[in-house]
Amino acid sequence: MPEFSPQRSFQPLLVPDEQQPWQTLSSQQLSPAPHVLLRDTVLTGHGTQLAYTYRPRGPVAVFVLPITLGGEAVLIRQYRYPLRAWVWEVPAGGVESGEELLGSAARELHEEVGGSAAQWLALPAFYPQPSVSGAAFYPFVAFGVTLQKAQPEADELIERHVLPLSETYRMLDAGEILAGPSALTLYQARVHLQARGLL
Amino acid sequence: MPEFSPQRSFQPLLVPDEQQPWQTLSSQQLSPAPHVLLRDTVLTGHGTQLAYTYRPRGPVAVFVLPITLGGEAVLIRQYRYPLRAWVWEVPAGGVESGEELLGSAARELHEEVGGSAAQWLALPAFYPQPSVSGAAFYPFVAFGVTLQKAQPEADELIERHVLPLSETYRMLDAGEILAGPSALTLYQARVHLQARGLL
Question: Is B1 inside a domain boundary?
Fold first, then answer.
């Protein structure tokens, strides 16, 4: 049975609408789902009226650091069109409509690197870009991972790399993991890997 | 004289256009500067044509962990409209047109918390959301910071908090720093603070 810490909801941390210091006067949707973008006209606490373009809040993606039975990390190198570059990342992907976070994490682990996990650990969730986005990201560590053939989506360009944890964290400390959410997942996982004697 | 490590350019890490696995067929600008949003029609390596909405690549923001002469951290709590919440962050802000990264960091330190630094350390830059944004974020540690009155922009809602580093890192380890780029800045800074005997 997978172990899962369910205390992951962001709801208790959100300010109820009646306490909002800014007032929403109108809201226009600029971009359709799944990449919804809103442009609101807001009245600030100072009485200024301004336009604010942003992505609405909600769980958007899961990030998985897979650790194999042999104690290695499974990273990917992925082509990212907005960067015009290949970058090191952990397996990750969008939470689909109606999907549980853990189900989403298990699906991405399977699709992107062909992995199945014996045990899961939930790490602290975070907002990747609070100034322009309400997107919430949910990182996990997957332990006891076994690998089969990956099944990436047709338009995903992904290379799978199985690396010693020592090399993975050398890369992190050297600033070679340029993908911020993946780097943050690795930093959060470090203490747990050390506690288990894996690092 | 401030100390600054200049090896910060992302250019060597970007894939030159002639090596792109995807071909850009057309590009439409959905949103004006400074929050440029593009919708490109691209031809993938598999011959599929698809629409990709993203923010173009480039340096966008700086993040500053200020350490006072007394060895304390200066954090802020800021209202973020996309989250409808107040979150803990480090002082940060957009790089203005023509501005050097260090100049931008010094300006944000001054504006948001009224700080001036004796010494600067550049940490590894990162992409906050590689799937949808080419934005590059540049974190710094500011040492020997002295504080005067903050001068936030009229529509910024910011509280300044001076905290012991032990409490700052307790919050980080407990998952209380929900703003991902600020959390990543703190994780990156940790080894440098330990090396100086501050943590």
Answer: no
User: Within an 8 Å CB–CB cutoff, is residue B4 touching chain A?
Assistant: no
Query: Closest-CA residue in chain A for B176?
Result: A124
What pLDDT does residue B46 have?
Answer: 79
Whether A118 and A41 map to the same domain: the answer is no
Phi, psi of B75 (to 5 degrees): -105, 170
- Count of domains observed in chain B: 2
pLDDT at B151: 80
Residue B10 domain flag:
no
Mean pLDDT on B162-189: 97
pLDDT of A37 strictly over 50:
yes
What ipTM was reported for this prediction?
Answer: 0.91
Tell me: do B70 and B113 sit in the same domain: yes
What is the 3 state secondary structure string of chain B?
CCCCCCCCCCHHHCCCHHHCCCEEEEEEEEECCCCCEEEEEEECCCCCEEEEEEEEEEEEEEEEEEEECCCEEEEEEEEECCCCEEEEECCEEECCCCCCHHHHHHHHHHHHHCEECCEEEECCCEECCCCCEEEEEEEEEEEEEEECCCCCCCCCCEEEEEEEHHHHHHHHHCCCCCEHHHHHHHHHHHHHHHHCCCC
Note down the domain range covering A182. 60-195
| One domain, residues B116 and B186 | yes
What is the pLDDT confidence band of residue B17, given thresholds at 50, 70 and 90?
low
Cα separations in angstroms, A88 against A172, B14, B141, B193: 10, 13, 25, 26
Q: Identify the band that residue A49 occupies on the pLDDT scale cut at 50, 70 and 90.
A: very high
pLDDT band per the 50, 70, 90 thresholds, residue B15:
low
What mean pLDDT is reported for chain A?
88
pLDDT band at A13 (very low <50, low <70, confident <90, very high): very low
C-alpha–C-alpha distance, residues A133 and A114, integer Å: 31
Domain-located, residue A173? yes
Q: Is residue A115 part of a domain?
A: yes
| Chain A residues touching B155 at Cβ < 8 A | 44, 46, 48, 50
Which residues in chain A (76-115) have CB-CB distances under 8 A to chain B?
Answer: 78-87, 89
